[in-house]
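Researcher: Good morning. I'm working through a list of sequences from a screen, and I'd like to move beyond sequence-only analysis. For each chain I'm collecting a predicted structure so we can compare shapes side by side. This is the next one on the list. No need for commentary yet; just the structure.
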Amino acid sequence: MYRAMTAMVLAILAAWPAPAGAEVALGGYLVAREACPAPQSIRREANPGDVRLEPGRAYVLVAKNKPAATHYLIEVEGAEPPRRWVAVACGEHVLPADGSGIVAPPGGETGGGEDSGAAAGRAPAYVLAASWQPAFCEGKPDKVECATQTADRFDAGNFSLHGLWPQPRGNVFCHVPPDLVDADKAGDWARLPAPALTPQTRARLERAMPGTMSNLERHEWIKHGTCYGGDTADEYFAESVTLLDALNASPVRALFATSVGREVPAPLIREAFDEGFGAGAGDRVRIACRKDGERNLIVEMTIGLSGEIGEETALGALIAAARPTDPGCPGGVVDEVGLQ
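Model: Good morning. Structure tokens for this chain:
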């Protein structure tokens, strides 16, 4: 009788889910790779309803069974009970889409893997994209940030933040659920979650990036910020704005501010970069222009960077460590506010 009771107790324990204390809380999603079974119990593999994952679908992650996980606990909508265990190999652990805390997927990567630029001892590489907003608005007059632009607003006489893009170019959408990738590519940025930012960072970003009025920051975070390698969206945008602040405090911004309405040749822009950030800095800058009737407008500059970025990192040092690039257009007009 004792043996029978012992066997019954062991059977009950085996069917019971792992104790809460053994689990490790986990945030983010699991994007299924395969149609794996999703049992209620790891030990007995009991699977009420014969639930299986749907490849490509994102499931909310609750926990992993131990620090060196073999299984994830996920929420399966429509299943009874909804919390199910799946093997780690069944999917990809992705980060929270609002950047409130990047969660490392299995293997410990938080960026785009070996292509992120920091692999094999290489310093991470980036492109800082700085727009001249009046020229941008000539081609996008219906955007709210363009319709509301005034001569006394910050972006009328300073560079605006377009984005900070981890390199190489294909290093995008790192561990982002497929439905959000689809929404971003469709230009439906209002469907993307707002990045989790402190009030201070939000205020700085709205000043530096007028495109926040059209949800540009949501697009930039989902596509590029998720590959940045920092811990949060707040860190990504705070450091991006700090780099832009350095550009706006330099002779480059002074050159543009005093040349509104006039044409500025590319060699003069490169000289201003050399003056502000050291010899050779101008060789790391590419100028983008667009036609506006008879005028050729300078719309944006993309600046190569290399190295670890932090709040105290000097922009000049990051530029100096980057590779030279082709100069882009030979120069153009520095546009003024308003449709010309």
